[in-house]
Amino acid sequence: MKWAELKREFDRLLRQNQKIKKILSKKTITYRDANTYAIEVGNIMGRVLSKKENFPDGITYEEAMETLSPALTHSYKLAREAALKAQKTINRKAGLNLNPSVSKPKADLIPGIAKEIVSRGGIEGFEKKLADQIGRFTMNGVDDTVSVNAYETKALGLAPKVVRVAEADCCEWCSDLEGEYDPEEAERLGVYRRHDNCRCTVEYVVGNVSETVHTGKEGKIKYRTADRNKRIKNDQQKNQDEKRARAERVAKEKLDSLRSGRK
Fold first, then answer.
1. What is residue 247's predicted lDDT score, i.e. its pLDDT?
2. What is the pLDDT of residues 111-133, one digit of tens each?
3. Distance (Å, rounded) from C-alpha 64 to C-alpha 35?
4. Which residues contact 187 (CB under 8 A, 6 or more apart)?
5. What residues does each domain of the chain span?
6. Which of 154, 167, 231 has its CA nearest to residue 194?
7. Measured distance CA(11)–CA(71) in Å, rounded
């Protein structure tokens, strides 16, 4: 289905969403609003796109990109626009005469999703995961805005923080990432990373101005540096071990295939 047709369905569902209506009716919005908006936009786009008729069996990479590229770019921009409005509010409250920096989606993410669809021969059995990937990609519109603006204000000699707040009943890995970070530390420790179905929130704070997003939690955010760094290091080592094991398994399978071919 062409993007123009999909967009009509997307726009209709967007107009009907009560959470989005409430946010759009506000004169100013916070990062809490921007995150909620991004989650809703991503959920709607996921529902619209993750249908078999949009990615039929045998679909080519070019055909998949023809649908994915305009759709995901649109949902990313909507989330980014909400984040920029929240950032303008924070800049104004902090006395910063700055226009927020505009982020761009990572160039390889949409092609990566298209390649996965093509490698599967379509999306049958992949619908839920595809919808989740679309949701996470949309939330990047907020996360990336936080990142670029934190770097910009630090370059001006200020002391911005990136704050990650875990959603209610989150996993242990996300819980350990909860806290306040320097912009460089946030990048190094993977604060913007999201696993499947992750809806934790990331925001920008400067000076005494905070629009902290509490998703089912109240009170002071915990900052557990030692435990967090240890767990992240273990997680990185685990990923390296899994990659090494996969490479060894593929090499063994190729060797076994060569040996069987000689018999």
1. 73
2. 999 999 999 999 999 999 999 99
3. 28
4. 147
5. 3-223
6. 167
7. 12
